[in-house]
């Protein structure tokens, strides 16, 4: 479950509500492509913008449509008591795993983060993936803290942010973290532009935003890398450089949601205010980039 | 209302709920001291850890106990639709003003932040204070963006983070911002250790965490500074340096909540998990510091 491609679908949402039909279509694409794990309600799935009831409803839709592929969902919230409630919801709704980031308002200390994971993992009966995402949480895990948390019961994977684009530095980073965590805890890379480098450096999983929309493209990169064909994985990732450039400039969420709109998979707007869609010029550029990408994906929308 | 001392009381909260009786006691202290504005449910008031119903309940308690002193409350939330609902609640509950920070999960662009304030201010019938708090929001306002937002209807103050401790740099910073905003919009300094410098540099208000607990001490500094007695304001602030040092090390919330516990005004624990109380050695140090401070405050707890 925590090896290979974990695909994080969008949750299309705007001021009128959640587009459930479009969400299910996105899940069906992931099922058809055969991803290894569906990451419903990750950052790309807008979990932070939805309330508890909405998160439960979306998770149920994901589990119901997943056809046996395991579903992981975020249980992150600012308050521990809410995290515990979300963990209960996730387990009752049939999630196979949960993802937890130390989101905060007041900056958290290492001990507060450790205690959060300690309290949550002690009440879980399904595996947990530690979500290290300083871009949204502004919490910076030390490798030593990762090592302590990885020893807690039910911890089975760590979703790390992008690695260095230099292969030697990436190798050193993954090797150092690996030595500090139990062998049964996998390391998954996120930050899609860094995925091939991260997988080639020894990450077992790719936690992917693009994979939630274009799973076949991302599965090809993942499988080449995990089969030891580093050059081929790099080559395919390099082909996506125009897209990675947009990710770096506008953030993956805005780019992937615009790509889904352009592809006709979801209607616009698909982000909750105050988030605004990609600007028009970036969108035109994205349209051009997508022509190549779409031709390599088997579309499986129920709409045609 | 947006001049002088705005005092931000704690909202004592732990896993068993909100301590409403202790909260009212804190409000009564502010009323007795005669602060210029009560900032209920600011960052010090743990707004980010409370749900909409809890925020409404606490705001009502504050308004009910304020004896005519205006009450401002935070309406900050990650999603615009929730901000609008909180603004409605605030107005119905009798708040005199609202405080809005651009809190976010995905990093916001300048245009997204401007549009948030544009949408919210257009629906308000009470004044708004812009809450610039990069320590918790991680959004960095440019002075130019402040200038644009300050022109929006109902904007009447900007709560800025700490200024430079160098008086000349602080003067330059405030003068620059002042030129970009309408004359009826005040500038208030926060970051208590910088308050005297900020007031001496021309800020009209001090948005104060310490003022929520020790209003008399903070009123003295504020009045000296606003009366042109800069040296006296600096002298009183410098006397508090041991406290400011703890603020810098542990964050003002943890220190002020421990101070309120030590003073017998609230019971422990008074912070919501995952936030943990001040560690024991810092607490012992704080006890020592507080002996001086408490002797200068007229306690007005209903408990004696």
From TrEMBL, chains A, B:
It is an enzyme of class 4 (lyase). Pfam families: DHDPS (PF00701). It comes from the Bacteria. Keywords: Lyase. GO terms for molecular function: 4-hydroxy-tetrahydrodipicolinate synthase activity. InterPro entries: Aldolase_TIM, DapA-like. Its EC number is 4.3.3.7. Belongs to the DapA family. This is 4-hydroxy-tetrahydrodipicolinate synthase. It comes from Paenibacillus peoriae.
